[in-house]
Amino acid sequence: MNKPIRIQVEExxxxxxxxxxxxxxNFDGLAKVITRECRFANGTALRIQFNPERMVSSSAKTDAxxxxxxxCFLCDENRPTEQQSVPFExxxxxxxxxxxxxxxxxxxxxxxxxxxxxDGRIQDMLQLAETLxxxxxFYNGPACGASAPDHFHFQAGNKGFMxxxxxxxxxxxxxxxxxxxFTMHSMDDGLRKAIVLSSKEVEPIAIEFEKxxxxxxxxxxxxxxxxxxxxxxKKEGDYVLVxxxxxxxxxxxxxxxGDEQILFSPAAVDLGGVLITPREQDFYKMDEAxxxxxxxxxxxxxxxxxxxxxxISV
Length: 314
Fold this sequence. Notes:
This protein is an alpha+beta fold. Helix content is 32%, strand content 25%.
């Protein structure tokens, strides 16, 4: 009889952190990561993490030419020989992420080499959240932080790390819909804007997500996928899905030079409340004014947000 997947994953983490030198070095290095808090006037608190090992991801070139010029590092034939996996269903493999943010950081890759597109996979994400019930599962869109936009993947990190998990208990949520156990709320804390879906069943969330996905797609018709980051977890019998719409991949400061440059490439974890800075100088520059400006550049403006809420309320 096979062991439960969560047990297999724990054993995988232990084995890889002992026997794969790259993973061992980087997971051990988390003990040296520096973290501080930035608190905002409305009560929102974000954590800032200086993590130099994340330079690979933060500075990843994701344009079509750069992608075409390198081998896909998530395909079986190109991964390091030391990197082992646990199968999930028939279509995924669970790996440890060798460049971790979390003490337990996983990458869940599609077996086939297909583009990073969430449409049609949201039930898989929620099933992962149920199976890996000690983790938050997250998805970065192809232009919203995914360093491998050419190969479908989720990621997962241990619960209790991202402030967003408790934000919903501390910040006001605006109700949009309630039907039985299913609820839909909006959140706008002055930095981030999100749609929060919750239900004891997968199907109502999947159906509503598809509606929201296609509304967002109609608002960004030139893109292969609307710009979104997603977080999902299971809590006290409820599935929770958080949708962060985006309007830009990276803020203007990312492309500046010299002292004006801020190497900040936000993805789901940043929107979840932990800002990852791979350079020490950026770590110390982050303050309330700068963070507010960085988020203003990547989240929908007031007009687009109002339009979205109106459309999904119909």
